Amino acid sequence: MMWSELLGHSVQRGWLESAVKQSRLASTFLMVGPDGVGKRTFARLVAKSMLCLRQTPGSMAPCGDCESCVQVDANTHPDLLQLEKSADASSLSIDKLVGSKENRMREGLCYELHIKPFGGVRRVAIIDDADTILDEAANSMLKTLEEPPLGSLIFLIGTNEQRQLATIRSRSQIVRFGRLDTSHVATLLLRNGILSEANEASEVAAMANGSIGMATLLADPELRKFRSELHTMLAQRPMDFVGISKAMLAQSQGVGEEGSARRTRMKLLFSFACDFYRGILLEESSRPSSVHTKSVKLSIATAARAIDSCLTAQSEVDRNLTPAGLLESWAAQQAELCQA
Ligand SMILES: [Zn+2]
């Protein structure tokens, strides 16, 4: 992967490039923005640039074919440390981040960052799912962020800086990422071989809220069909909230027995519901929307409250509520909101 292949985010790139040029690159970055817009790809490109053995000083252009560049692309670079939440966990492993209780700061990513770089240049850490770092782990990381090893770079990747402790925020350079253009999402769907028809790629991209991650999921026609059925149910009056919660439960159970897959699917379904209400807001302001709201009459305030309730439900999926209970109370809330 080279910079020329990255779509969007040119402002953020220009900003970092000028910092590199002036030798005032920060050591810790907090990269925030919606899921699936390329934050990790961006961080990996910065890492590749800064680890490249033929890098021109003051530039952020990796050569692409030295040993280091090849290793970054193959995920085998010994100085590139990467950490993400495991699929079945609700938070990033504190042990992997700062070591187990008995060995705190004597193992784990923060410890490894202090080891002399194998390539002699620097060590780089990319920490994904930073939203889920527990306070105890965040506090243990502070010393590393306060006095980072010379030349090291740390990228924390999350959705919103407010999800971080103030002490982490204040020690990080915050880089905010926006959503991708719909045309970029369509291009990526075709380029990554997820879809092959340009028309279908455009149609899917229009539903994806500027996220290639969302677009990749929506490439599944069955899932698009359910999204559209859910929108029809949400538009129906009176709203059949029992039917809605049953349909969503069945859809989330359809991904298999595994709890984490079901939770991920459930969050996706709440975001489909969210799209419906966003569609109403967009229609109100005469902007194009991928949602057919069938002229549902809802005040802007009600639609905004309904969006809030979808986001709250989404954040409650990871807590220990029974899925059926969460869905039923959410759906009942929708019916109540839309009656008002
Ligand atoms: Zn190189």
Which key phrases capture this entry?
5 strands, binds zinc ion, 5-stranded parallel sheet, 51% helix, alpha/beta, Rossmann fold, 340 residues
How many individual domains? 3
Q: How much helix is in the residues? A: 40-55%
Count of helical stretches: 15
The molecules bound to the chains, other than polymers, are:
zinc ion
| Named CATH architecture of the largest domain | 3-Layer(aba) Sandwich
- CA radius of gyration is 22 Å
Content of β-strand? 5-15%
Walkthrough of the structure:
The chain has helices spanning 10-21, 39-51, 67-73, 94-98, 109-113, 135-146, 166-169, 182-191, 198-207, 212-218, 221-235, 241-253, 259-284, 300-316, 323-339, and strands at 28-32, 80-83, 124-127, 153-158, 173-176. The protein is α/β, with parallel strands linked by helices and 340 residues long. It has three domains: 3-176, P-loop containing nucleotide triphosphate hydrolases (Rossmann fold), CATH 3.40.50.300; 181-217; 220-339, no CATH class. A five-stranded parallel β-sheet has the order 2-3-4-1-5. Helix 6 (135-146) links the parallel strand 3 (124-127) and strand 4 (153-158). Helix 8 (182-191) packs across helix 9 (198-207), helix 11 (221-235) runs antiparallel to helix 12 and helix 12 (241-253) packs antiparallel against helix 15 (323-339). The longest helix has 26 residues, at 259-284. The mean pLDDT is 93. Zinc ion binds at residues 52-54, 62-63, 66, 68-69.
Please summarize what this structure is:
This protein is α/β, with parallel strands linked by helices and 340 residues long. 51% of the residues lie in helices and 7% in strands.
